[in-house]
Specification:
Strand order of the largest sheet: 1-2-5
Largest sheet: 3 strands, antiparallel
Distance between the termini: 20 Å
Strand content: 25-35%
Structural class: alpha+beta
Number of domains: 2
Order of helices and strands: HHEEEEEH
CATH superfamily of the largest domain: IHF-like DNA-binding proteins
CATH class of the largest domain: Few Secondary Structures
Shape: elongated
Amino acid sequence: MNKSELVKAMSEKAGLSQVATKQALDAFIEVVTETLAKEDSIALVGFGTFSVATRSERQGINPLTKKSITIPAKKVAKFKVGAALADAVAK
């Protein structure tokens, strides 16, 4: 499902126009992005939790040259699935 298909499905479920639904989805994405940029987390009970994790520096191998390289530390976005969503997917 792509974004336009998601907007259409959401608008049908909520009984809203597709324009209003797209604005709400865009706002949700913007708020999640801003919150994670501040290294905060967002917990949606039953659905999941968006958070930021730090990957430490580690050693890797360049597949072309087979030489050892250092992969720098970085922050990554994570999503931990909530129980209700996990149960719905498992069915």
